[in-house]
């Protein structure tokens, strides 16, 4: 049962990364690929009807973690205190910049919110990537089941650790590059004309950067937490995840070469899911690794909410999940095809 | 209260109060938008569609701010209340996760369709999207109230060997009797807020002599919904809520009414200042017997005073609780009077010419926000010093390892951010109202 929940949380996290990932990427990139107000409204029309729902995956994932593994949420959120508030404030600024921009047709007003949107969209992937890096590296959990670490210390991966060190910064940059490249493919798929051309042109170098950073992170992980690879021979799902992300990378390359943005976009989604699946399979069952003593680590066995709670949650979740998928299918269907810049006043 | 506990409580109270200004309006507006869309379908008149479009614009802005100010609350359970999350997360995580899966996706999906899809969907489906949005936002309210209800009146759980709480009866937890009553009262409060805002815009335009048909429509819809909502907020929902507090949290009732000594024929204190040091109420104006009647249905019932309870179970911010309760009840009574008068004149067809009353309706819109915030304060301060009533003390729920300085810093960050956010929101809503219904 706890294994099922571990994977449910992982699936929702992966969905969040893929779905909100493309609108983070689109946001981070839009200052460069969309140069005037009409082009920027085209970008907003592409993500406008979707981003709000995408963001809900974060709340759904947080809720599931709270339900299934309250100790992990309690330790992680209070331990990364300041970083968590950076996430919160970034999400606030990002949300209102999309919402407020359209209400006033003034150049400076729009330029300001475009800038805020781009900055917040670029910062979120770095923060999420650093979080992933922290989970892989481990944190100084002690016998109380809690920890609290500063934002950074000496940038080294040894004790005392900070939230940011060279390794978590590397994973942060990897996720930033990946989601920007992912967003470029989404925009290339949904737009036409100049924005489409610039996105296709940006995607190639971005994916080259992703490949280099992914390789670097793979080697760095061996140095930071060798346990991850020690589990490889016993984790068939990790091999499946690796196969998926390599296939995704191949699809991206083929899609870019043949000028088929939708195929490339699906490939980049597979790359992200594969990477996260391989990571989850390698760390299982550990959810928060203690750098002090393995006995203090929080894992799916010692940190779950109990059999009755997990069983109950599963019952309604299998009802809710298909409904949510149906909403998304409907949304994507209604908004299918290339977008046009929304007329002023309609939508965003 | 030590510094860390104070700042954790202050931060959550501040961010939750600011957040709730927005959903109470969207939940109220969702109902009115649904009514407008329904009338548009049923009567086939374009003025209802036009009204729906205007209020969807206001809804969108309000919803946007409501979402971004709601996200911090879910995070703060973990960041600021880590021991509470560890101990109670296995129970309340259920409703919080259900809110995400059942309510938020519904709301965000259909708000997008409502804003972007009027042409693509056609009138019937567009009205169906309004229905879905209404269901989503009211469902979301239920999950939050059910979560809060567990903290007020914990049921359906079991205390495990290590002191944490585990879920035992999902049905009992989800349909907590406390939640049903509190939900009805909270939702009528939200309808009152939405109605007052709609009526205020109608009154404003009528006084200015512009947007005639739309102004009349808002005035009528706002006054009718406001009158029904204000009455329902007092009776039966407020009355039931009061009886519930009397039954399950008698110490909170005593504090709300500033009552130190027990006795029969308990009086309601209309005004008066609680003096905690001397344990009495100064300058009271009283209605004898009424509290006994409200709480237990008979003028002669015995209502316990604070003296009957151990000092360490008294609500910690007694004065704030007392004043919050009296502000809520006082404003609620005024709402019934104001909306009752307006409804009477509306019925007689004289409301549009009653300028002093239109001025009152225009200026009254902030007061439901104050009344609802006061109501939440009463619920939350009445629960103190418990985080989960009778089970977990507030002082034992904080993140023990977080340094007070970090909490002060993040609280100041929220204060600055929310100040800017609030001003921008008011500026944009004022612009929409100034632009009028036909804008765009």
Describe the structure.
The complex is a heterodimer of chains A (348) and B (440). Chain A has 348 residues and is mostly helical. Chain A contains eleven helices and two strands; from the N terminus they run ααααααααααββα. In chain A, strands 1-2 form a two-stranded antiparallel sheet. In chain A, helix 1 (2-33) packs antiparallel against helix 2 (37-68) and helix 7 runs antiparallel to helix 9. The longest helix of chain A has 32 residues, at 2-33. In chain A, 59% of the residues are buried. Chain B is mostly helical and 440 residues long. Chain B has one domain (3-239, 317-435). Chain B has 13 helices and six strands. Chain B has helices at 3-43, 46-79, 82-116, 118-152, 170-174, 177-208, 212-248, 250-256, 290-296, 318-348, 355-363, 366-383, 404-435, and strands at 157-159, 165-167, 268-275, 280-287, 386-388, 392-393. In chain B, the strands form three sheets. A two-stranded antiparallel ribbon of chain B has the order 1-2. In chain B, strand 1 and strand 2 form a beta hairpin. In chain B, helix 2 packs antiparallel against helix 13. Chain B is globular. The interface between A and B is large, with 68 and 70 residues. Chain B: The chain crosses the membrane at residues 20-42, 54-75, 95-116, 128-151, 183-205, 217-235, 320-346, 358-379, 408-430. Chain B: One of its GO terms (biological process) is aerobic electron transport chain. Chain B: It is a multi-pass membrane protein. Chain B: This is Cytochrome ubiquinol oxidase subunit I. Chain B: Keywords: Cell membrane, Electron transport, Heme, Iron, Membrane, Metal-binding, Transmembrane, Transmembrane helix, Transport. Chain A: Belongs to the cytochrome ubiquinol oxidase subunit 2 family.
């Amino acid at each position: 049962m706890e294994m099922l929940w571990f994977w449910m949380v992982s699936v929702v996290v992966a969905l969040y990364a893929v779905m909100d990932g493309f609108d983070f990427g689109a946001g981070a990139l839009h200052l460069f690929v969309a140069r005037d107000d009409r082009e920027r409204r085209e970008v907003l029309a592409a993500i406008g009807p979707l981003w709000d729902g995408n963001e809900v995956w974060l709340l759904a994932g947080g809720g599931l973690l709270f339900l299934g593994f309250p100790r992990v949420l309690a330790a992680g959120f209070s331990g990364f205190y300041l970083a968590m508030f950076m996430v919160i404030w970034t999400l606030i600024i990002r949300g209102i910049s999309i919402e407020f921009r359209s209400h006033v047709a003034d150049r400076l007003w729009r330029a300001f919110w475009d800038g805020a949107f781009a900055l917040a969209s670029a910062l979120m992937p770095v923060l999420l990537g650093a979080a992933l890096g922290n989970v892989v590296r481990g944190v100084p959990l002690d016998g109380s089941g809690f920890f609290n670490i500063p934002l950074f210390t000496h940038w080294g991966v040894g004790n005392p650790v900070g939230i940011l060190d060279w390794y978590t910064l590397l994973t942060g940059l990897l996720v930033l590059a990946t989601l920007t490249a992912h967003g470029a493919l989404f925009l290339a798929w949904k737009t036409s004309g100049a924005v489409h051309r610039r996105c296709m042109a940006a995607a190639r170098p971005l994916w080259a950067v992703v490949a280099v950073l992914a390789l670097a992170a793979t080697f760095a992980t061996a140095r930071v937490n060798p346990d991850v690879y020690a589990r490889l021979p016993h984790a068939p799902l990790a091999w499946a995840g690796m196969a998926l992300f390599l296939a995704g990378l191949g699809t991206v390359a083929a899609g870019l070469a043949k000028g088929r943005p939708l195929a490339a976009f699906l490939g980049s989604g597979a790359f992200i899911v594969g990477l996260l699946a391989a990571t989850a399979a390698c760390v299982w069952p550990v959810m928060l690794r203690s750098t002090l003593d393995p006995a203090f680590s929080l894992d799916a066995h010692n940190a779950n909410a109990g059999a009755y709670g997990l069983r109950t949650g599963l019952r309604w979740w299998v009802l809710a999940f298909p409904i949510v998928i149906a909403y998304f299918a409907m949304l994507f269907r209604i908004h299918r095809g290339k977008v046009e810049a929304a007329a002023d006043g309609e939508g965003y | 209260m030590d510094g860390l506990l104070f700042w954790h409580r202050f931060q959550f109270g501040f961010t939750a109060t600011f957040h709730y200004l927005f959903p109470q309006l969207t939940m109220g507006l969702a109902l009115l938008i649904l009514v407008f869309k329904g009338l548009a379908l049923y009567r086939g008149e374009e003025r209802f569609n036009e009204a729906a479009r205007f209020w969807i614009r206001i809804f969108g802005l309000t919803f946007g701010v409501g979402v971004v100010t709601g996200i911090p609350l879910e995070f703060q359970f973990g960041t600021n209340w880590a021991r509470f999350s560890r101990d109670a997360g296995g129970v309340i995580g259920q409703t919080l996760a259900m809110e995400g899966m059942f309510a938020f996706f519904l709301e965000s999906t259909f708000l997008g369709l409502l804003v972007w899809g009027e042409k693509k969907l056609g009138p019937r489906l567009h009205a169906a999207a309004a229905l879905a949005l209404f269901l989503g936002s009211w469902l979301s309210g239920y999950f939050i109230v059910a979560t809060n209800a567990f903290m007020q009146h914990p049921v359906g759980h079991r205390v495990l060997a290590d002191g944490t709480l585990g879920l035992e009866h999902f049905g009992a937890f989800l349909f907590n009797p406390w939640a049903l009553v509190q939900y009805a009262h909270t939702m009528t409060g939200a309808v009152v807020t939405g109605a007052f805002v709609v009526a205020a815009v109608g009154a404003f335009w009528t006084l200015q002599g512009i947007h005639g048909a739309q102004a009349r429509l808002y005035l009528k819809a706002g006054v009718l919904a406001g009158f029904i909502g204000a009455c329902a907020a007092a009776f039966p929902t407020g009355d039931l809520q009061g009886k519930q507090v009397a039954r399950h949290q008698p110490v909170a009732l005593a504090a709300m009414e500033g009552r130190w000594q027990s006795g029969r024929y308990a009086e309601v204190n209309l005004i008066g200042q609680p003096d905690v040091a001397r344990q009495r109420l100064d300058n009271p104006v009283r209605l004898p017997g009424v509290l006994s009647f409200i709480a237990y249905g008979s003028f002669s019932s015995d209502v316990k005073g604070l003296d009957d309870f151990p000092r360490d179970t008294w609500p910690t911010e007694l004065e704030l609780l007392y004043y919050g309760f009296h502000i809520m009840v006082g404003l609620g009574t005024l709402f019934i009077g104001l909306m009752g008068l307006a409804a009477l004149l509306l019925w007689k067809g004289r409301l549009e010419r009653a300028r002093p009353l239109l001025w009152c309706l225009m200026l009254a819109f902030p007061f439901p926000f104050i009344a609802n915030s006061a109501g939440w304060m009463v619920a939350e301060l009445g629960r103190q010093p418990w985080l989960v009533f009778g089970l977990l003390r507030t002082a034992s729920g904080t993140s023990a390892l977080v340094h007070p300085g970090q909490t002060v810093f993040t609280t100041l960050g929220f204060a600055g951010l929310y100040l800017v956010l609030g001003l921008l929101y008011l500026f944009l809503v004022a612009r929409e109202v100034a632009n009028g219904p036909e804008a765009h």
